[in-house]
Amino acid sequence: MKHYGSQVDGTFCEHTVSYVDHITPIPDALDSAQAAGIMCAGFTAYSALKQSEAHIGNWVAIPGAGGGLGHLGQLVNTLNLIYPYLKCVYCLSRRAIAMGLRVVAIDTGEGKRKLCLELGAEKWIDFRESTDLVAEVIAATKGGVHAAIVISGGVRACEQAWSYLRRRG
After folding, report:
1. Predicted local confidence at residue 6, as pLDDT
2. What pLDDT score was predicted for residue 67?
3. How far is residue 91's CA from residue 106's CA, in Å, rounded to a whole number?
4. What CATH code is carried by the domain that includes residue 80?
5. Does 10 fall in a domain?
6. Which terminus of the chain has fewer CB atoms gathered within 10 Å of its CB, N or C?
7. Closest Cα to residue 145, out of 112, 123, 114?
């Protein structure tokens, strides 16, 4: 059985002793509260991307691409961190592009559109303005995406993702 913070003494302490392999250095320029998001949400999203088994040149849809992970992307990019393991997970869209994947960013709002395109998304679809999101994704990718990493918390985003995946996606 695993134990979490409230069930084990010492988990809320300010200092601890650990093996060096279990420690990730955090630059002084990065506030601990900011780093927490990268280390948690960033790695979760990165893990989903890796498990998708998408390959170079494949399309990946990211519903919710302009949300919290996009914000982390801007933060880490601004700080120009030198730690490659932090930099590689700072934004799901940017990481997908670094892996050679082609990103369809799905979200809403001009600010998010601008952010996603600046981070390298090839296609942008505003789900509020779209009359048929599934058809738009399939048309934009000439047959559907190879993978969908649903960052959005919406049930509809999950349901739609099944419909715009290409065969064997």
Report:
1. 63
2. 80
3. 14
4. 3.40.50.720
5. no
6. N
7. 123
Does residue 61 contact residue 136 with C-beta atoms inside 8 Å? no
Please state, in angstroms and rounded to a whole number, the distance separating the CA atoms of residues 74 and 77. 5
Would you tell me how many other CB atoms lie within 10 Å of the CB of residue 82?
8
Residues 95, 87: Cα–Cα separation, whole Å: 9
Q: How confident is the model over 25-75, as pLDDT tens digits?
A: 777 776 777 666 666 676 677 778 788 888 889 999 989 888 876 445 434
Cβ-contact 121, 78 below 8 angstroms: no
Element (H, E) at 76: helix 68-79
Residue 146 lies in domain: 31-164
DSSP state of 31: -
Contact (CB, 8 A) for 16 and 10: yes
Please enumerate in sequence order all residues whose Cβ is within 8 A of that of 40, keeping only pairs 6 or more positions apart, or say none: none
Placement of tokens 């084990």 in the chain: 8
More confident position, 138 or 97: 138
Q: Select the highest-mean-pLDDT range: 77-91, 109-123, 124-138.
A: 124-138
Sequence length of the chain is 169
